[in-house]
Amino acid sequence: MCKRDLVSVIIPVYNRENLVSRAIDSVLQQTYPHWELIIADDGSTDKTRSVLDKYADNRAISILSLDHCGKPGQVRNSAAVHSKGRWISFLDSDDSWMSDKLEKQIEYLGNHQNIRFIHTLERWERNDKIVSQAHRKHNKEGDLFKTSLGKCEIGPSTVMMGREIYLENNGFRNDLEICEDYEFWLRITSENAVGYLDEELVVKRGGHSDQLSTKYGFIENFKIEALKSLVDNEFFNGNQMFLAKKELARKCRIYSRGCRKRGKESEAENFESLYFFYSGDDVID
User: Fold this and answer.
1) Residue 256 and residue 76: Cα distance in Å, rounded?
2) Domain identity same for 58 and 116
3) Which of 39, 55, 150, 274 is most buried per CB count within 10 Å?
4) pTM score above 0.90
5) Is residue 285 a part of any domain in this protein?
6) For the chain, what is the domain count?
7) Residue 64 main-chain phi, psi, to 5 deg
């Protein structure tokens, strides 16, 4: 590990004219100087491109103009094709970094040669107010596969990963609108130990109406879709497959109950059938 290793920073953006500058500026302010920034504009229709053009003279910044797809993973993948760094870091366009984020992660990786994937603590803000994360108590380092099955506990903006891991796993799925990170982290944590810095090095902002989680209101069905694909394609082996099927069945049972409460009987029956199939039970408790 060399302290001069290049870090490729990837920002996907779509219609964030009022937010993306804060993300870009937080990269420019990094105390670790060896980075390149690739911004992938997913066909924005507002003034985002005009904002990005203000950074066009910076030789460390590349700006890609893409046809709109609405798939965050596909946009990140399109940017990663152009990356040159040994390490890849992602930054969502509505988030920002503390100035020493990259430096501290590079230092950690230099001291932990067996780790190729690291994340950090986040500070959550909603409508400019800090949201407490005290209730989010879970294992954050080492073998995170079981933890990652339940929830997406790794924020994309917190991650630094070895380029080889990204390539070995073929990046994010291109076809998922939501939970593409949940699916990708499952593939990675099934084979890699995870490093962690217990410091708020990322500011995650929520509360704005264009977030996909706000658009749909709930995302558990998207997690089910992502996990089901991995199980059906036998991506996992042994105990990992057992745990994955168990979690998939649990998610289907909970979601089916929610559908029934909302009067969606047909959808409830579909997810109940999936519960029976993956759990092996013949009665839903």
Assistant:
1) 32
2) yes
3) 39
4) yes
5) no
6) 2
7) -105, 135
